[in-house]
Automatic annotation (TrEMBL):
Pfam families named in the record: DUF433
Organism: Hymenobacter negativus
Cited InterPro entries: DUF433, Homeodomain-like_sf, WH-like_DNA-bd_sf
Protein name per UniProt: DUF433 domain-containing protein
Length: 68
């Protein structure tokens, strides 16, 4: 049962069957924590999007907003 983490963050979803219930991006197997770690390590938005073509620029911003 996939649900949005909140109305303010509709791109961030929670599903106990995906990534052990961690917040993920749009129900994909990209945990928010991993995306934040990529950004914190210095990867640029373009590098992340090139390495992970399922992600969109808005997904990266949604992860940052969710963490805030």
């Amino acid at each position: 049962m996939e649900t949005a983490a909140s109305a303010a963050h509709p791109r961030i979803t929670l599903d106990p069957n995906i990534c052990h219930g961690q917040p993920t991006v749009r129900g994909l197997r990209y945990p928010v924590q991993n995306v934040l770690e990529y950004l914190a390590s210095g990867m640029t938005e373009a590098e992340i999007l090139a390495d992970y073509p399922d992600l969109e620029a808005e997904d990266l911003r949604a992860c940052q907003a969710y963490a805030a």
